[in-house]
Amino acid sequence: MVRIKHRYILVHILYPDLDSNWALQTGARGKALPDIVQIHRPSPDYLEPALLARALRDQVQLLYGDYGLGLVSSSLNVKYLSTATSTAIIRCARAHYRLVWAALSFMTHLPRASKSATAPRPCVMQVVRISGTIRKAEEEAIRRARATILRVEKASGEDSQDNMLGLLDRSEHEPLKASQLTAGRLANGSVVSDEEDEDIGQTSDDGG
């Protein structure tokens, strides 16, 4: 029996359009939040795994036609999506993960919840790791979340000893359950790796 091998793509959804009103409303004491917080701000609640997967399939079809869609359609699945952290883990077949990677890179807007919805929200799909196991993708997500928190605290001049880091420390010892991944709801360059193979990529220069 042949085992189908997959790749797990860790994606951050970034929002480059800085919203001064949102920053002032969210910031403490009327102080605007740092730009890094705005770029990594939460995604809309309507964004669900099925909606993101459908938008990704549409983008693959736009770039590669029906042939490309046929290659990735059966294996493409959003295993985890957190609107709070704008983080997603996408599973696809190892043989065709570059098609999905390219499609993510060309996505410039979030999918609409419906045809009657307002104008789509501009975004950047940042692929930060491609791994052969979902556990490695989880570990990288936690590591980058810690780095982002430290960068935010440095930018705002706050003490680096924050409760959020304590939560992340506990998360490192509490991996996600299979039921959580199936349900679809994970708590921030790019590495292409596989526990069965040697690493074939490099870490990006972005520390967060």
Q: Which keywords apply here?
A:
disordered C terminus; 5 strands; 7 helices; alpha+beta; single chain; five-stranded mixed sheet; 208 residues
Q: Give the end-to-end Cα distance, rounded to a whole number of Å.
A: 41 Å
Instruction: Give the CA-based shape.
Output: globular
Helicity range: 40-55%
Please give the count of helices. 7
Biggest sheet overview: 5 strands, mixed
Estimated share of beta-strand residues: 15-25%
Question: Radius of gyration, rounded?
Answer: 18 Å
Extract low-pLDDT stretches.
Answer: 159-190, 196-208
Summarize the topology.
Blueprint: E1 6-14, H1 20-26, H2 35-39, H3 49-72, E2 77-82, E3 87-93, H4 97-106, E4 124-131, H5 134-156, H6 163-172, H7 178-183, E5 191-192
Parallel strand pairs: 4-5
Antiparallel strand pairs: 1-3, 1-4, 2-3
Task: Describe what you observe in this structure.
The chain has 208 residues and is α+β, with helices and mostly antiparallel strands. The protein is built from seven helices and five strands; from the N terminus they run E-H-H-H-E-E-H-E-H-H-H-E. It has helices at 20-26, 35-39, 49-72, 97-106, 134-156, 163-172, 178-183; strands spanning 6-14, 77-82, 87-93, 124-131, 191-192. A five-stranded mixed beta sheet has the order 2-3-1-4-5, sandwiched between helices. Strand 2 and strand 3 (87-93) form a beta hairpin. The longest helix has 24 residues, at 49-72. The protein is globular, with a radius of gyration of 18 Å. The N and C termini lie far apart (41 Å).
